[in-house]
Structures are given as structure tokens and as C-alpha cells.
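Extended Data, panel c. Modelled sequence:
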Amino acid sequence: MKKYMVMQAVVLMSCVSVAQAEAGSIPVGGMKLEPTVTLSEAHNDNIFSKELAKDIKQSWVTTISPSLVLKADDGAKQYELGYNLSDSIYHQSHGDDVINHFIHFNADLELSRKLTAALYVNYNLSHDPRGSIVGAAGNVVIPDAYREGIVGGSVDYGSNAHIIISGEYNSKKYTNNYNTTNKRSFDTAKVGAEFDYDLTAKTSILLEARYKHLNYLTALLDSNEQAYFTGLNWDATAKTSGSARVGYTQKKFTTAGTPDVKLFSWEMSMEWLPLSYSSWTLSTSSKPVESQGTGSVIKNSSVDLSWNHAWSELVSHSASLGYSKDIYQNNPRLDHTTTASFSVNYQWLRWLAVKPSYNFRNLSSNIPNSSYKSNVWMVSLIGTL
């Protein structure tokens, strides 16, 4: 059933990006090297995410983003090693200019008919833009810089019944603005176990357990988190599929005096393909999110709707609407966020795509001077071989 869902996505994406799939690569031994360069010009009317008119600053932002991806595929095993550089220039606020680096390695291994494994490694040297974190823009004069390393993987064994074991280790350390970033540096370790059983050819039931340990630099929010879910995966028809998990999450803090948090949690996603080249996806979730310094943890509930459609082999679009509610635990803060985005991809030439886009964000908070609206208009040129 999972393979069928993947095939649906493959068919849709192949229709959306036929010309892009024909982009050239450089042979390197038995591998392929795929270079890409993206040049974007954007206008952001509230780069610091401020509420008061006197604090709002607009800027044009130019971003140059070259990338290299090296791929190897022998059928049963696929490997990918990639590097991406992102250089952003804020023309009306050069103190916010940043250069980010991202390195990733992925491996997907089919070890036998019943056994598959996946491995991923990421290393990032990046920044949080001023204003993207609660309270950050008002206290610092340069973006928050951090380094992050992530190592994870999973093993899937079975056919009609699956056992999936997964794990991840993440270390994120901020390297400047210590007065505000010391509460956001952490190490986290995750493990998970999932059991799937096929009830029919198109429906499976699942049971899942997750454990996460967070170790913050300041130790005030160190915690152990346990979550338990049950749910279903289904392909009701050739045009509809989905997944639903409901469960219970408990977060216990190791620091005395910080109350534990218990939440009813869910994760649901449904996809409808009325046409082979058009898809609608509705997703919703309720889960704990790390607070990054305000409150002990955030109870986040969200719903998102997206529509992807290929008008031809050369033109496609993506549109989305989203709403989320953040309840800060052990803190009076309450945020409501509405988002909307729209983009068009036009494959002008075999090796060059033009992508205009628009992103809207409206955050409403009960804390004074914490609400804001932003509009980002962007045009990107995406070049391949």
C-alpha cells in the first residue's frame, strides 16, 4: 500500500516537471553530478516581523543559491551527497546579509525483499533571521548564527506486517547573541518503533511509540518526552489516500518546579487526485513544539490545505492555506497564525525555469507588540545543465 502511495506522487510529479526531469548531469564514474543555480529577487514588507508601524522595515532581498548533488543508483541501493550555499543580500538592511551552508547525505537500501533501510546525515551552518524567533529582533542587531548536525535512520522489516525502527540525534548550537540564544542551543535524541499490519490490500492499522530526550545548554528545559499512537493508512480508491494517527504525549522536565505537560496528540493527512496531474492535500496535527525560551513547551495545533496542478508539461502551480494555534505552556502567551502561498513554475527553457511566488503571514498574539503581518513577493530563476 505504501508503494502505491509513492507511485501516485511519482506520477503527479513527473507530469508537473517533465522538462525539469530532462535536465542534464555530469557523469562521474558510475554516478551523476547534478548542478543547480537559483537566483531569487524578493520584496519583504516586514523583515523583522514587527507590529508597530514605526518599527516595520521593508527590504529587497537578493538570494544566490548554487547547489551540487552527486547521485549513485544501482537499483536496490540509492545514495545522494549534496551541498547547497545560500547567499542573501538585504539591500535596505545590510546588517542582515547572511551566507548559509547546507550539506546532506542520504542512503536508501533494499537489503532483501522484506528488509529496507534508510540513513541520512545533515550538517548546517545557518542563521535565524531577526524576528523569526519570538523576541529576537528587539534584542539583537545581527541574525542568530548556529551550527547543526543531524544523524538519523530507519529499518523496515516485513511484508504484510511491518516493524519500523527509527532513530535520530540532533545537535544545534548557536554561536552569537548568547544573551538570547543560550536558551535555544540543545542536543536531542529520538527513537521510535512502529508496527503496521495490513487489514486489506488498501488498508493497514498501526501502533507507534516515540521517545525523545532534550538536553539544553542552560538545562532549565531539559526533558524526556514519550508519545504513543494508533492509527490507519489507507488507499480508499485510485484517487484518494491518507494516514491518521491519534495518541497521547507526555513531557517530563528534569528541572524541579517545571510542571510536566500531557497532551492529546494527532497527525492526519489526506490526499485527493481528481486528475493524474492535479492533487489536493489536507493535513492537520496537534503536538508539542519546543518553546525556544518562552514558556516550557508549546502546544501547536494546525491545519493546512494545498493544491498542486500541472497545466501543461511546461506550466504548473502550487497553492496553500494554513492556520495554527500556539498555546504556550506555563506562560500566558497565545498565538494564532494564518499563512497563504502561491507559486507558478514555468519551464521557459529545458535548462531554465521561472518561478514567481507570493507568501503571506499573519500572526496574532495576546502579548503586546508581538503580532505582525508580512508579505513576500519573489521571482526565482532556476538553472540546470
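The chain has three helices and 19 strands. This feature is highlighted in the accompanying rendering.
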